[in-house]
Backbone:
């Protein structure tokens, strides 16, 4: 926060009620912020997942200056997608076991973190997102965004076959269990488990990691975020395959479908309190895996 800027007064809570003590933490935050003269609202009704993923963005007031998310990385990712385009800073409180995106993970640290927010002891970090679409028979049949990754995956036992193009130029053909197209934020998620590289979160990169490729020379590819990626599904109709956005939106695919992925114009803004370096944070997280 730059000196002279107005302090935040309007907060909104997103609570994953499936996480133990998440509601208790929300009540603590709401009561504390109210005592400090702030407005803190949260939706306590069960979510209608038929209309939105996790957060009903229509209920988030326009004057909101910060969204506090209680849950885990998954809850924070869903919030980033549900509130895409609102330019609202997100602050994550981890109520799960391991979080790379959430800032604090202990109940005793919650009120200290609230003091830091109110005293402007934080910085805003902008994370790139991906935009993906599925084109079938010449028309777009699905389109969505992702903060972590867009994944071509399989549902059956057959391996997948697909061709990779970069900026319209053929690059390689693959026989594999799928392909991960990750942002730097998503580099520590499925991409990492599949043997892909870790990237600094503020980087502008697209990381492509094949999943269990049936060759000895297939490695991850790291591209500038200015590149446009296209995958063409070439496997037979007996292969059950899909495209997922942040593990949520799932689109079934068939032979001949094209998957186009590029950097989204929308970004996610995260509130960062800790001055610990990215590599130090990764080292600490890895000790608990």
Residues:
């Amino acid at each position: 926060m730059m000196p002279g800027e107005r302090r935040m007064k309007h907060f909104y809570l997103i609570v994953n009620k499936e996480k133990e003590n998440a509601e208790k933490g929300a009540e603590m935050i709401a009561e504390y912020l109210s005592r400090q003269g702030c407005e803190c609202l949260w939706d306590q009704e069960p979510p209608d997942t038929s209309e939105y993923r996790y957060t009903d963005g229509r209920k988030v007031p326009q004057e909101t200056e910060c969204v506090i998310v209680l849950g885990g990385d998954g809850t924070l990712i869903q919030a980033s997608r549900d509130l895409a385009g609102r330019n609202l800073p997100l602050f994550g409180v981890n109520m799960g076991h391991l979080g790379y995106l959430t800032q604090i993970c202990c109940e005793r640290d919650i009120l200290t973190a609230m003091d830091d927010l109110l005293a402007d002891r934080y910085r805003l970090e902008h994370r790139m997102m991906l935009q993906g679409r599925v084109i079938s028979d010449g028309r777009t049949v699905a389109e969505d965004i992702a903060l972590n990754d867009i994944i071509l995956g399989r549902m059956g036992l057959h391996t997948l076959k697909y061709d990779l193009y970069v900026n319209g130029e053929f690059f390689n053909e693959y026989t594999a269990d799928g392909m991960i197209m990750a942002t730097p934020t998503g580099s520590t998620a499925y991409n990492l488990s599949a043997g892909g590289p870790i990237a600094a979160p503020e980087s502008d990169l697209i990381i492509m990691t094949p999943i269990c490729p049936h060759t000895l020379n297939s490695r991850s590819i790291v591209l500038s975020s200015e590149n446009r990626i296209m995958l063409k599904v070439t496997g037979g109709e007996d292969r059950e395959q899909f495209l997922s956005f942040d593990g949520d939106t799932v689109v079934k695919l068939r032979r001949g479908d094209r998957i186009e992925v590029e950097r989204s114009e929308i970004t996610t803004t995260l509130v960062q309190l800790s001055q610990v370096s990215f590599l130090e944070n990764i080292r600490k997280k890895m000790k608990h895996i």
Summary: The radius of gyration is 20 Å. The chain is about 15% helix and 40% strand.
